[in-house]
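Hey team,

Sharing the Probable queuosine precursor transporter run so nobody has to redo it. Sequence (241 residues) first:
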Amino acid sequence: MSDPQISRIDGTTSARRHFRYFDYVMAAFVAILLLSNLIGAAKLAQVGGFTFGAGILFFPVSYVIGDVLTEVYGYANARRCVWMGFFALVFMAFMSFVVVAMPPAPGWDGQAAYESVFGSTWRIVLASVTAFWAGEFVNSFVLARMKVLTGGRMLWTRTIGSTVFGQAVDSLLFYPIAFLGIWTTSQVLTVMVTNWLMKVVWEAVLTPVTYAVVGWLKAREGADVYDTDTDFSPFAKAPQV
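Structure output:
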């Protein structure tokens, strides 16, 4: 943190502070999360001999943004975004269930295709919500703790390190809950490991982008958050303003 215009603040202070760009970053995080789960989660693709969930092509952007949220705004603000994403996923699942269940109009022959795209089973919904919630909190916790331990140096170690742990939890929960018994055990294990590796590789590839976005936001927010006094419980109440 060499810029004199950037002030070091603790986690409690960051939770009370108004940030200029925070709402925009949160909106991008939730939007990409919803679209990735809605469009790509259930499709199994194969390219160059690698089998993977199709959502992996765009979903990494959401956890890059998740890293940016924790690095720039601190764990408490990232926690708010995780809960916003969680409730948005639940509502999306509820809305999909209601719309799919409504009887189609006479003469409309798109019901089967509509169900195929939007009719996720309860297992996929449960897997998506559970894996997202657990994986994102692990990711944010690891990144925030590593930032304090490294004194804010070597950003790449904590963005990649947090992804290793956070996305391991995500993959370990999502694919067995959603597809074990539907896909073969071999397919589940293959896709689970492949997706985890691809997420980590994506995080490494996007490291220059993460550095640029983090630097830009810190300079404009004028703050660098260190979670030295933060309650890391997912259920902790936000400090009063």
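The first helix runs from residue 11 to 16.

Ping me if you want the raw files.
A.
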